[in-house]
Amino acid sequence: MNFNLTEEQQLIKQNAREFALENVEPIAAELDKTGRYPAEVIKKMAELDFMGMPYPPEYGGAGADYLSYILVVEEISRSCASTGIIYSAHCSLAAWPIFKWGSEELKQKYLVPLCKGEKLGAFALTEPGAGTDAAAGTCTAKADADSYILNGTKCFITNGGVADVYIVFALTDPAQGVKGLSAFVVDANLPGFEIGKHEDKMGIRGSQTTELVFKNCRIPQTNLIGKEGKGFGIAMQTLDGGRVGVAAQALGIAQAALDEAIKFAKERVQFGKPIATKQAIQWMLAEMETKLQAARLLTYQAAAAKDEGKIFSKEAGMAKMFASEAADWICGKAIQIHGGYGYIKNFKVERLYRDAKICTIYEGTNEVQRMVVSGSLLR
Ligand SMILES: Cc1cc2nc3c(=O)[nH]c(=O)nc-3n(C[C@H](O)[C@H](O)[C@H](O)COP(=O)(O)OP(=O)(O)OC[C@H]3O[C@@H](n4cnc5c(N)ncnc54)[C@H](O)[C@@H]3O)c2cc1C
Question: Can you give the residue ranges of the Acyl-CoA dehydrogenase/oxidase N-terminal domain (predicted)?
Answer without folding.
Answer: 6-118
